[in-house]
Design brief:
Elements lengths: L1 H28 L5 H13 L1 E3 L10 E3 L8 E7 L5 E2 L9 E6 L19 E6 H10 L8 E2 L2 H7 E3 L11 H8 L4
Parallel strand pairs: 3-5
Antiparallel strand pairs: 1-2, 2-3, 4-7, 5-6, 6-8
């Protein structure tokens, strides 16, 4: 039992440090520290997105203020691993998904693994095209929808660019690299 008590003490001390860091981040982003809120904040700063006033707005996190998708709606996701799945909405109001991901990983057991807070890649999916393709193939659309590797590759805008729908400037690339491995 002494070992368990020491492990719990270490864990409690680490969580206290994490809570302090999370509080500092929450103060900066003006929302609770979660991957969703933080991803939206980072994406808004880098890709010039006006975020919705309410974080509870259905399907839409904001609108692009510049670039080719100016005025278009966007749902921002930050997945700490790129496991080939995407939470997909059937909302007609949604134009794009902007997805920030950590390292590629097969959907497998998380035992012994970590989910690092980093951005390895960014993808831009046209919502209507994606939903049309998924439904035409009989894929169930919703939480953790399986998206083909070829679709991820076609949607990549960082570090490589497979689409001109949202060109990534040298400055944006440098900003994203701040969060890289």
């Amino acid at each position: 039992m002494v070992v368990a008590d020491e492990e719990l003490r270490v864990l409690a001390a680490l969580l206290m440090k994490r809570n302090d860091i999370d509080a500092q981040i929450a103060q900066l982003i003006e929302r609770p520290m979660t991957s969703g809120h933080l991803g939206e904040y980072i994406a808004a700063k880098i890709f010039d997105i006006a975020l919705e006033t309410s974080a509870a707005a259905p399907a839409i996190d904001g609108r692009f203020r510049s670039g080719p998708p100016v005025g278009k709606t966007v749902n921002v996701k930050w997945y700490l691993k790129q496991e080939g799945v995407l939470d997909v909405s059937l909302s007609d109001a949604l134009d794009y998904y902007l997805v920030l991901t950590g390292p590629r990983s097969a959907a497998a057991s998380s035992k012994g693994g970590i989910r690092p807070w980093r951005i390895d890649a960014v993808y831009l999916f046209d919502s209507k095209d994606l939903v049309a393709d998924l439904t035409s193939r009989g894929v169930k659309v919703g939480v953790a929808t399986g998206v083909r590797n070829s679709q991820w590759e076609a949607a990549e805008i960082y570090p490589a660019s497979a689409t001109s729908a949202l060109p990534v400037s040298a400055r944006q690339s440098a900003q994203l690299a701040l969060f890289g491995p």
